[in-house]
Amino acid sequence: MKYFSILLLAISLYSCKEEKKEIKEEPKAISEISDSKTQSDSVNQKATQFTEVKNDIQEDDGQDEVMLEKDILFNGKLKRIFELKDFEKVFGKADSTKLMSETQPCTYIFEDTGDGKNDKYLYKNESCFENTEQKVGVNEFWFLNGNYILYKGIKIDGSSTIDDIRKIFPNSVKNISELDSPGRGKVQLIRLREDKENISDGHINIYFKNNRVQSIHWWFPC
After folding, report:
1. Per-residue pLDDT band at 106 (split at 50, 70, 90)
2. Is the overall model pTM greater than 0.85, yes or no?
């Protein structure tokens, strides 16, 4: 009888140990399901991101990018068209001036304003501005003597490289061209559109010399 009691006790302890083992193993199964779900969510997220990137590439038509006037600040202060009183405040006194009637340009910024008789060019550090009455507009802007622009808050100056500009305008840099320009020598240039709808016949040229940004010029056909 004594041995029978011991046998029952042993069977009871073994059974209890097995139950505890099963209880410990149950959370492990839940953890495995959770890990499986996390991996599945991660795969789905990566697939979604890939699809979004792919869609962006498909929507890219390869055209030169757009550079809107409203997104530019010259020397961080002035829009492309500004008041004459602000010219000297930001750029200093003009190096020289010339009546536009002397050169008779085929097109200019303020051609629809007034009679144009007293309209003139203002030159400062190689940059060319157009002036009519109390208004001034940027024709060509050189990145000299600390001149710079803020484009959507991004600073572009004479130290900016082609690779720097590629980050902003990848298509235009991909279509970069090279030419011999009078007074400049061999330069590279990219073209930017003036509007998203391609309404304007003109475009914006950004010139590079020795891999550095040199100037920006608004070009319009005659």
Report:
1. confident
2. no
